[in-house]
Amino acid sequence: MMLYITIFGMYWSWVEYDKTGALNIGETIVKNDLIFDGSGKLVTYLAIFSVIAWFCVTKIGYSRVQNTPKIVRSVLSVLSIILIVVAAYEFTYNFTVWGSLITVNTINNSLNFDEINISYPNPETPWNLVFATKMTLAALIISCHAFYMIHRSDKKESIYVKKRS
Q: Is residue 109 part of a domain?
């Protein structure tokens, strides 16, 4: 499903870029529903399946994490903390900007959640805020889970022995 959505989005973005010369990151998968109108946006399914795929991969590969050396787990732990901070900042920033632009559009009587874009950091390639917000939320969930899994592997299972009196 993730591959289908990604290929669909890349293909139609390329077609739009070839026609207009403009590229809007994430707009294609935000404007299209999965099967029929009202069945859910492709970006929502991409975010959900990204998180589910991560959970499945970590469930399958958890024993490999337990067997990695302590120094490698420490480095991975630091990297996951960095990802948590970056994803939390980006999610908060995108959500705040998205909410602000929704308010401005409501005041101007032009309310369309799916077409709100931000031309930051590169004015030539704007990002769709629905896409940016949902995908950074998925990245935040994944990085928090990675940190949890790394630290969970540090704790050895303890065996409680009943004390004899």
A: yes
pLDDT tens, 113-127?
888 999 888 888 999
Residue 163 forms part of a structural domain: no
Q: What is the pLDDT of residues 54-105, one digit of tens each?
A: 999 999 988 888 888 999 999 999 999 999 999 999 999 999 999 999 999 9
- Are 29 and 5 in contact by the 8 Å Cβ rule? The answer is yes
Domain range enclosing 39: 2-154
Residues 6+ apart with CB under 8 A from 68: 76, 153
The 10 Å Cβ neighbour count of residue 31 is 16
Contact 33, 5 (CB under 8 A): no
Angle subtended at Cα 25 by Cα 120 and Cα 13, rounded to the nearest 5 degrees: 150
With respect to residue 159, please indicate whether it lies within any of the assigned structural domains. Answer: no
Task: Measure the CA–CA gap between 113 and 99, rounded to whole angstroms.
Answer: 10
**pTM strictly above 0.70:** yes
* 37 within 8 A of 129, measured Cβ to Cβ: no
Is residue 95 in a domain?
A: yes
Number of domains in the chain: 1
